[in-house]
Amino acid sequence: MPPAVRFGINYTPSEGWFHHWLDFDLDSVRADLDSIAALGLDHIRVFPLWPYFQPDRTLIRPRAVEQLVALADAAAERGLDVNVDGLQGHLSSFDFLPAWTRTWHRRNLFTDPEVVSGEVAYLRTLAAALADRPNFIGMTIGNEVNQFAAGPHPDPDRITAEQAGSWLTRLLAACAEAAPGRLHLHASYDAAWYQDDQPFTPAHSARLGDLTAVHSWVFDGTAQRHGRSAPQTVQHAAYLVELSKAWAEDPHRPVWLQEVGAPAPLIPAEHAAAFTEATLTAVLDCPDLWGVTWWCSHDVSRSLADFPELEYGLGLLTNDRKPKDLAHVLAAAESRTPTARATALVVPADPARRSRCAPGGPVFDAWFRLAADGARPTTVLDTRVDDRDHLAARGITEVVTPDQVLATAPGRTRS
Hints:
415 residues, 33% helix, 14% strand, alpha/beta, TIM Barrel, 2 domains
């Protein structure tokens, strides 16, 4: 039997948002964790803010590390495992980068030797501090760090795909050295799967680290194009999970839906529970799913300024720790053991053509045509369509191209 799917939440403190690290209150954290544990979830994803923890390249604040460990211990007391994101990085439209990487000290986050050595020391310190905690899942290098490497970021640190791979390999190794035997990974936003010039590629996500992470946000053009309740919207997370499998070398590499949420106004509050239920129904039909971690735990307080409007209401719980309807939907979710997906849609291995997989592209449209016909599609690289061993290991018995699918009228069976 495959392991049960994990259900968890991205922890956003109810008091002070992630700025709570500046005025850390363990009693407030405990109350937040009580409200999360009451939902029956089994893990949280935690976000130290990088500039607060490492304000100087050679100063990693011991008190901040102690507070992180105290949070992890409080989670353990409530039966919650903990994954820690190191390099924050980017959260809820704000960038959090230490001063020793910006303006007068402007250096590339991914290639400058001194910056990278500082990042390695930081990740090692956090991982080592938690390595002996039984509830420590492992490290995620950072939250959607790929957004710093290309447009639409207003001031990107440009790198090549080769440089991105080298950076990821080195930082993942640092985590593994400090906390061996844990699950260490990295996480990109969906430009890694959809944007032709993004240097963090699908292969990086699907081959480096112990898990593949996908972040599914339907404000990427999906909900705007198709509407809140369309299959393309409520199955977007399932699509990304299955898209990721085309690049994986391990035919049963676990995939973590590490972020997914119900963003207003595209998903109005009164429809958030229905969206949550439909999203979970779809993604739990994906084999090799490691877990689902909802974004996020608690709403952002209206006392905090300048967040995009959608960020204030993304929580499963209100700012005063009361569960919303969608929280009860996640709490009721149950692990499943889906069968293999036998029909594979061909996707281009060339990362310069990955926009074909984006919303509105032929791969995206063909996948949802297949899903509408009841095919339960997955994906396979165009370089692997004749690899019988690979197809057999994944249970694939039919391979089709987007052109073949889209040439078939909706509702008609392919010949």
